[in-house]
C-alpha cells in the first residue's frame, strides 16, 4: 500500500496518489472511503463544500488505520473567507472529521472579487503555527493570487490544487510553482468524465502497449509529470485500477505524445469568474 511521497515546503510528506470524494453522495461516502482505504489509499481529499466530512471521518475510524499513516485534506468553503469565520469553519471541519489535526487545509477558491484571500491566509498561518494543520495550501489560485500571498504573507502555500489533465496542463502555473516550491496537485485528473480523454490516440496506444487501461495511462502521465493526483470513483474495481499504476512506466515517446495533447482548455470553472 506504499505510494511514492513528495516532500512539501512545510517539511511533511504527502502520498503522491490520493483519493478524492467530490460528488460522492453523503449516504455512500462511508462505504466508498472504506473501500478506498481497503484498496490501499492513505490520502483522502474532501472539502466542507462536499458535505461529506462526517462520513469521511466515520470511514477513517472504522478502518482502524493509525492516524499517522493517513493524509487528510479538507477545504474552507467560499462563504467563510472572513477572518472571523475561518477559525469556526476550521474547528467544525476537524470536529466533523473526528480529527485533532489536518494534514492539509486548503482555501477552496480565491474568490478574487471579494478580495479576502490574503486575510483568510493570515488565519490559515495560525493553524500551521499551532500544529492543527501540518500543511496549509490553496486551490484554484491563479499566478496573480499566488504572487499576492508571496508578497504580503509569511508562509508559502505548500500546494495549489488546480484543474489539471492532458487537455489542460497548466504549464505556466506549474513552472511558477516549481520556482517557489509550491507543489502542484491535480483535480479532475481524468477530465471529470467531461472530455473523452480515454479515446485519444496516444492514450489508447500507450494503454495497448502496456496492457493497462486508458485511465491508468493518464494517471501515470500525472505521476511522471510530478503532480499529486487524487482521482475519484465510487466503484471499488476502478479505485483498485487507479491505484495500480506503479507497475509500468510511460516511455519518453509515449509521455511526449500525451504532453502534446495540451489544448490549454478547462473543463471546469474559471477561478477568476467564480464568486
Ligand atoms: P476525476 O477526473 O477524478 O474524474 C472522476 C470521474 O472519472 C468519475 O465520474 C468516474 O466515473 C470516472 N472514472 C474514475 N476512474 C475511472 C476509470 N478507471 N475508468 C473510467 N472512468 C473512471 O474528477 P473529480 O472527481 O472531479 O476530481 C478528483 C478529485 O479532485 C475530486 O474528487 C475532489 O476531491 C477534487 N476536486 C477538487 C476541486 C477543487 O476545486 N479544489 C474541484 C474538483 C475536484
UniProtKB/TrEMBL annotation:
**UniProt-annotated site: Lowers pKa of active site Tyr, residues:** 75
The UniProt entry, under SUPFAM superfamilies, shows:
NAD(P)-linked oxidoreductase
GO MF entries: oxidoreductase activity, acting on the CH-OH group of donors, NAD or NADP as acceptor
Q: So which domain of life are we looking at?
A: Bacteria
Catalytic residues in the record: 50
Entry's Pfam families? Aldo_ket_red
Where does the NADP-dependent oxidoreductase domain lie? 24-263
Q: List ligand-binding residues for substrate.
A: 108
Keyword annotations for this protein? NADP, Oxidoreductase
According to its UniProt record, which protein family does this protein belong to?
Answer: Belongs to the aldo/keto reductase family.
Q: What is this protein called?
A: Aldo/keto reductase
Supply the source organism for this entry: Galbitalea soli
Q: What is the lineage of its organism?
A: Bacteria, Bacillati, Actinomycetota, Actinomycetes, Micrococcales
Amino acid at each position: 500500500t506504499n505510494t511514492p511521497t513528495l516532500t512539501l515546503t512545510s517539511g511533511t510528506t504527502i502520498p503522491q496518489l490520493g483519493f478524492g470524494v467530490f460528488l460522492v453522495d453523503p449516504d455512500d461516502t462511508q462505504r466508498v472511503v472504506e473501500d478506498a482505504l481497503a484498496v490501499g489509499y492513505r490520502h483522502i481529499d474532501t472539502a466542507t463544500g462536499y458535505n461529506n466530512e462526517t462520513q469521511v471521518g466515520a470511514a477513517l475510524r472504522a478502518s482502524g488505520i493509525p492516524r499517522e499513516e493517513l493524509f487528510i485534506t479538507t477545504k474552507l468553503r467560499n462563504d467563510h473567507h472572513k477572518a472571523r469565520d475561518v477559525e469556526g469553519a476550521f474547528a467544525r471541519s476537524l470536529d466533523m472529521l473526528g480529527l485533532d489535526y489536518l494534514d492539509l487545509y486548503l482555501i477552496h477558491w480565491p474568490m478574487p472579487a471579494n478580495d479576502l484571500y490574503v486575510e483568510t491566509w493570515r488565519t490559515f498561518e495560525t493553524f500551521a503555527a499551532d500544529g492543527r494543520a501540518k500543511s496549509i495550501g490553496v486551490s484554484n489560485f491563479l499566478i496573480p493570487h499566488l504572487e499576492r500571498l508571496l508578497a504580503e504573507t509569511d508562509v508559502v502555500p505548500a500546494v495549489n490544487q488546480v484543474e489539471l489533465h492532458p487537455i489542460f496542463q497548466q504549464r505556466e502555473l506549474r513552472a511558477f510553482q516549481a520556482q517557489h516550491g509550491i507543489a502542484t496537485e491535480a483535480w479532475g485528473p481524468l477530465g471529470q468524465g467531461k472530455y473523452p480523454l480515454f479515446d485519444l490516440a496516444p492514450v489508447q496506444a500507450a494503454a495497448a502497449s502496456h496492457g493497462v487501461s486508458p485511465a491508468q495511462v493518464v494517471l501515470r502521465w500525472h505521476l511522471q509529470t510530478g503532480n499529486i493526483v487524487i482521482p475519484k470513483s465510487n466503484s471499488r474495481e476502478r479505485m483498485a485500477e487507479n491505484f495500480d499504476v506503479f507497475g509500468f512506466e510511460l516511455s519518453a515517446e509515449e509521455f511526449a505524445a500525451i504532453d502534446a495533447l495540451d489544448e490549454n482548455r478547462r473543463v471546469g470553472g474559471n477561478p477568476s469568474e467564480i464568486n
